[in-house]
């Protein structure tokens, strides 16, 4: 190449690099301080809004944590909590975010933040998204947007992703995954399908989508609805006699009782499990003002019982309070799905003590630091909102999973095996029902040299995984084990 050609190449390279620098993460989104944390932030954090509908002023809030490893190469993962109506700060604060939150010593002070050694941001960048509009810090200037559902939520979140990657083009080449839990068992595959349609249609920017992860996720009305009775029998929570009777009277159809005798037996099942922690049957129950008494009785148990399900966790931050939760035989039926607060007047409600998250996210200094809307726009942050009316209008997720995996996208379906809210028996059944050839026969998987669960691998890169002793929110109960399977899956390694 002659001297002129070399000069032109250098000029073009300089222009290209200048464009890259110009079109990188917006400076106004950088989070420069984390109130409550006094150390050095191990990676860059960004937060702000993406407008997904200009005419309605519909704005989705995100909190983005760059990987603590190699952010230029590590996967980018979108994390979605469920509900519907629950903020993805649930995952950030209580599950796999970069910090462990220690409750404040006084009402006036902030929670204290410590680095989380098992944060998923050790191996990936994560976008925590409040979705749909009306959830967490996300909002719309047109309140009709708060009447929404599966299809609209997936469409909005896809629009969010396209605009987000325009704001952060330096991450476009990174492998991209979608992950979530609970009702995100609907959010994740419906969004993945929208992303796939966009890729097929040549929509720009072109997302480097590689696969998805669903934890304890609702999937199919019939299969999930029938999962509870075999689960509680297998766990020794109901008698053989009752199990045989309910099988006989219901003909194996537990999710949609067709006779009074079946209903009567299912009611007896409900009564037998009524005192259990629906999110983790190994954990004690906290009944509001009775919590102290129950905690005391728990402490008096022999140490061998107290240690059941324990894992390394520096700062336990919340107590799950007992309540009956959907799905319990009605996980994803078509039509309106009530949010937790909309059920508060019912006896069948789970209650979660989110006081640590409330104290931090509703603090004015914190809100300013993480770039939320003014209080005149979003008055307060709630773990789960009653602001939205949500319609399940996408049907069973099995057809979505078949479509995605048959196209070569990798899928990890994981279950805490002591969750009674979305029992592993349902996830195990529907992954098997797809009919793919078993390529990795049921076997234990290890973490830190110990058996921590079981896995079965299917053709078309579909993997089912259990985590021993974990409840509904696996990384909250088993953070070390959760990081292990997460990093192996993202890297394409056997679990």
From TrEMBL:
Enzyme Commission designation: 3.4.16.-
GO biological process: proteolysis; secondary metabolic process
Pfam families for the chain: Peptidase_S10
Coiled-coil residues: none
Family according to the record: Belongs to the peptidase S10 family.
Domain of life the protein comes from: Eukaryota
KW Lipid metabolism (keyword) present: no
Entry protein name: Carboxypeptidase
Signal sequence residues: 1-24
Predominant location: secreted
Species of origin: Cicer arietinum
Record PANTHER family: SERINE CARBOXYPEPTIDASE-LIKE 20, SERINE PROTEASE FAMILY S10 SERINE CARBOXYPEPTIDASE
Compartments, record wording: Secreted
Swiss-Prot/TrEMBL keywords: Carboxypeptidase, Disulfide bond, Glycoprotein, Hydrolase, Protease, Secreted, Signal, Zymogen
Function: Probable carboxypeptidase.
